[in-house]
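During the reporting period the student researcher (J.K.) took over the structure-prediction task from the postdoctoral fellow and processed the backlog of single-chain submissions. One of the processed entries is reproduced below for the supervisory committee.
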Amino acid sequence: MSDTVVCISCHALEEPYAVETTIRSALNMGYDVIVGYDEKVPDSHKNILSRYRITVAVSGEKGIGNNRNMLAHIAVELGYRVFIQSDCHVMFIPRSGKPVGNNVFLMFPVVEKQLLIADKLAGKAFMYIGTVHDYNDIRKIRFIGKESKYVYFFGEPVFSIETSILSRIADIQSGYIYLLPGYGYEVTDVMLTAARIGCVFTKSDTFIYAHRINKGKEKRWKGRWTREQMLMFHANMYIYSVKHGFKSPVFYKELEEKFKERIEIAKQVNEELPIPAKRVFDLVKKATERGDIILF
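J.K. obtained the following structure tokens:
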């Protein structure tokens, strides 16, 4: 058993080739792998999953945030030291050595067909660490350049973090590690929460990864945006805004009823976290001015 686990969060509509690419490249890193689904394992994935020595887990709750929460808890409960979070459509490309502690990895976007040959494109691609949003507008995205030495948080799907920090987050959040139930901001939330308890993430050149970017027209992408999915997306935005003191987006009464518990936890956590979100953004601004973080 490795001291590090790669936890791959899967959507039921994901293309099997992408899932297999992610699993195979994660195993090539030399770490254990857990693949998680929210409600069930789709039939189209079962044959692929059976080919590899991995663990498969199902949360039984709809939502990618719930899925990620389950995976993080499994990593903690099984005694892993480091948790690497991953989407189910990335390719890890090892360089040398092993990342230690809280790391972010260089990444580059690819389109559908490029994912399978991403390792051949790495040297030619536009690489960066990730994206952050503005303090005054959580929908305004900016890129963090590869020259950065460290980051306080970002919104990309791959990072590593010590499980002891995940345990601290769970203690603060009534047992939740990923408080946001659906897709959107759930990764940013965990990283910003870690930053608000004093954690810094350093750049790792040990691994880079390609991330397949959806353009919004794919059948799988359209298929996932049911009314319930949209509700969870807006719930994510609202809970995230409440938790970190951002100006809240449009509020839906239905959100208050369906996610009342998490909204209340978010309000309490915002009061109890030792470092205000505004302070983190001030640190990001100063790091940018020093040249430690390059914003495009």
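The committee noted the following: The chain has one domain: 4-212+275-290.
J.K. will present the remaining backlog at the next meeting.
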